[in-house]
Design brief:
6-stranded mixed sheet; about 475 residues; 2 domains; Aldehyde Dehydrogenase, Chain A, domain 2; 7-stranded mixed sheet; Aldehyde Dehydrogenase, Chain A, domain 1
Amino acid sequence: MKTYAELLDAVTAKGGETVDAVDPATGEVIGKAAVESVAELEAAIDRAEAAQPGWAALGDEERQAYLHRAADAIKESAEALAELLSREQGKPLNGPNARFEVGGCEVWTRTAADTPLPVEVIVDDESGYAEMHYRPLGVVGAISPWNWPMMISIWQIAPSLRMGNTVVIKPAETTSLSVRALVAVMNQVLPEGVLNVVTGPGKVVGDALTKSPRISKIMFTGSTPVGKQIIEASAQNVTRLTLELGGNDAGIVLPDVDPAAIAEGLFWGAFINTGQTCAALKRLYVHDSVYDAVVEELAKFAAQVPMGVGLSEENVLGPLQNRKQFDTVDRLVEAAKASGARVVLGGDPDREAPGNFYPTTLVADIDPHNDLVVEEQFGPALPIIRYTELDEAIRLANELEYGLGSSVWTQDRAQAMAVAARLQAGTTWINSHGGLHPMVPFGGAKHSGYGREFGVEGLKAVAEPHVISGR
């Protein structure tokens, strides 16, 4: 499956109930995605349960080898996967987008394979001996979102498989083909039943997955309201959970910055994937002394970044993935304009044009409690809030229920560390925003979820700790 045509043919539904897979840049139907039922979910769980003991029995080294073969398969089909991802999700091929995402799938798979997790000796002295082992949980249920459908799926799949679990994954309804394609490529080399995909509506298939007593762990990336529903649905079975939920990340710019030097970093922190990233910079607090200069430099940089159809090689920003998200961004920006906020760039979408394109938008001189600031816009619109006292900026950054990421922008590292220590977030970046590393744990605070992914902590999160103790 090394060509786009071969890959699309492999994942397009040939019969049964289907839904159109639509290119959000053009409105073109690119294929048919299967709408599966609870019965088909149960059959997938059957396959995963049957395969799990044998997969676990292979041992760590053999599972690592399988994951490297899966990474090789992803690499071999990388261009076809990127084209399908671009057509279905909308993100351009170039920039930190489709090719970048597929490359990330390969890297995160290899890292999950290679991260060491030896037996931990806890006590070894005259009082006794104890060591910690990590055992498979069983079947992991994964629910992936539409913004980074392939890479976030890998974040769920690769560590789960490494630790001896099998997986049943349900992708978002609007990016089903992308995840089916990724799974199909990996299943060219993985044993039968180890990795399974079921596509269908979240309120039917997703709900049944989270309520199943045969699922040992749920991994979910998505909105906070849906995360709360999953907590309730899984409670009866005491299902283990990793929840990476909504974010409304704050960045704080201190007065000593060089506005021109930080403009590019601020832009990509906010507008990577056209703003459709949980840990994107979504509200920016800038000190009064550099406010106008930061706004000017950021607008200057943003105006030069091309947006358009993802298959055109020059573009690095694309459409919003679905019309519902377009409408959310449009509503919030219009409300900000009506309140008297100043639109520095963008804010004027062509609502009649094909595709879900919303222009890169910067909104300045906005009240810190405007809806565009306090709601997660999840799109290419950044509110920029002026502050005079650092304590005020930190208070505003912390007062929302979200706590996924945050950032501090300054030339003074000691000051940056001091401010970071006061921010309520799972991650605080210094002079950047949103960058992830496969060995650095990632997850949220407050209503942005709980549990950690990546690295050693990510492997432990999909395993059962088992202490063996004695003398």
